[in-house]
Specification:
The chain is mainly α. The protein has a single domain, classed as Four Helix Bundle (Hemerythrin (Met), subunit A) (Up-down Bundle), CATH 1.20.120. The protein is built from four helices and no strands. Helix 1 runs antiparallel to helix 2. It is elongated.
Length: 119
């Protein structure tokens, strides 16, 4: 059983909106990174300020990696839609449940396979 065109269109719109949101968050986050300031290296700040910048940079970097993974998952899902392979479990080849795709549009596996793979 394939996804209805209406359901697929709704998911595609949702993925496109999420892609924009994640991209904007990534851009904003990069601006918050203290290491992105070119004057940082010539600033002779105290060592405690340097430690704070390092901690902030590490936090920003971790969030940035997570957002980058999200963005890649979204782009891959959009690619599967374009290729006509969206909603097919990459383990068993069956259709992924429509409710599951509505809740998690980047899902790669049906619930049965997901549960098996988690073990």
């Amino acid at each position: 059983m394939k996804l209805s065109a209406q359901a697929l269109d709704k998911i595609k719109r949702q993925l496109n909106e999420e892609e924009k949101r994640v991209s904007l968050n990534l851009e904003s986050l990069k601006k918050q990174d203290p290491f992105s300031d070119p004057d940082r290296l010539i600033d002779n700040a105290a060592s405690d300020a340097e430690a704070n910048e390092e901690t902030s940079h590490d936090r920003v970097e971790a969030i940035e990696k997570q957002l980058q993974f999200q963005l890649e998952d979204i782009q891959k899902a959009l690619g599967r839609i374009k290729d006509g392979k969206y909603g097919i479990c990459q383990n068993c080849g069956n259709m992924i449940e429509e409710d599951r795709l509505a809740a998690k549009p980047t899902a790669l596996y049906c619930m049965d396979c997901e549960k098996r793979l988690e073990r």
